[in-house]
Amino acid sequence: MNNIIRTSLSIYSQAFKQPTVFSQQVRNKWVDFRQKKDARKRKTVEDYGAIRMRLNVLRKNRIIPMELQEAAHEDVLKQPRDSNFTRCQARCVLTSRPRGVLFRWRLSRIVFRHLADYNKMSGVQRAMW
């Protein structure tokens, strides 16, 4: 009797793991790999950005001794490349488009215009005259 219950339970547990018609694919929160890559760069800037900026100030300061400048330069070279904030790209959160992004809404001009036309954005209206 016990064996019958075990085998039936194992069959049912395997059946629940199989995808069905009603199950949905769980997608990640990134539109494409470029957006994920940019998010990784932003995380690196968050971790190392302040240190990198301070080291750059020491490196470019002409008042302090040359040894300190060289030490700061070596430390900057040891930092990850992506810790420089200029490597981050503003991207649209819906399409991952890198150009024409409106900073306040984090949307590309094309998506912004589409959403504004159909009153999908609160307080935003296209100019009419």
Automatic annotation (TrEMBL):
Molecular function as annotated in GO: structural constituent of ribosome
GO BP annotations, alphabetical order: translation
InterPro entries, alphabetized: Ribosomal_uS14
Recorded superkingdom: Eukaryota
Annotated GO CC locations: mitochondrial small ribosomal subunit
Keyword Ribosomal protein annotated: yes
SUPFAM superfamilies: Glucocorticoid receptor-like (DNA-binding domain)
Keyword annotations: Ribonucleoprotein, Ribosomal protein
Keyword Translocase (UniProt): no
PANTHER family membership: 30S RIBOSOMAL PROTEIN S14 (PTHR19836), SMALL RIBOSOMAL SUBUNIT PROTEIN US14M (PTHR19836:SF19)
Family, per entry: Belongs to the universal ribosomal protein uS14 family.
Protein name stated in the entry: 28S ribosomal protein S14, mitochondrial
